[in-house]
Amino acid sequence: LDDEHDLQDLAHALLALEHDDIRVLSWAPDYAEGRERRGFWLKLELVVFEARWAWPGLDAEALGAQLTADRLVHRQRTGCTALACLIYDPDGLCAAPRAIEQALSRDVDGVTVRVFIAPRP
Description:
The protein is α/β, with parallel strands linked by helices and 121 residues long. It is built from three helices and six strands; from the N terminus they run H-E-E-E-H-E-H-E-E. The chain starts with a helix and ends with a strand.
């Protein structure tokens, strides 16, 4: 994998093995500085799945703010009941991956949010 687009292509292919109705969601949130984000709406399961590449300075506060924005938009657009976010961190940029997962994986306003950071050290 070379970048976030490769990661998202792989995620889409893997999701297609188990899910029949996958819709690509594209939007450009304020935090993305005009860059489009892609997520995957698993319509039958009411789940939105996002795959992201880790960035320098990744911490719970920055990721939490992004997930809050994503949760609100996805809830409004799709009616999802769950948001799963995979952060791919091949270079170990995230200082405390398990702490971030625990801090951000919770139920908020009727949406279950789960964060997974991989690979695990």
